[in-house]
Amino acid sequence: MARRKRNNRRRRRGSFAFLYQLLCFVLIGGAIIAALILFFKVETIAVDGNSRYSAQEVTDASGVQQGDNLFFMNKYDVAGRISGALPYVESVSINRGLPDTLHIHVQECRCGVVLEQEGQTWILCSSGKIVDAPEGSAAEGWAVVTGLSITEPQVGAPITADETNEPIRKQLLEILAQLRKKGMLADVQEIHLEKSEYISIRYLDRFDVEVPWGADFDYKLNFLAAVVAKLEDYETGTLKMMTDGEARLIAG
Question: 117: which strand partners?
Answer without folding.
Answer: 120
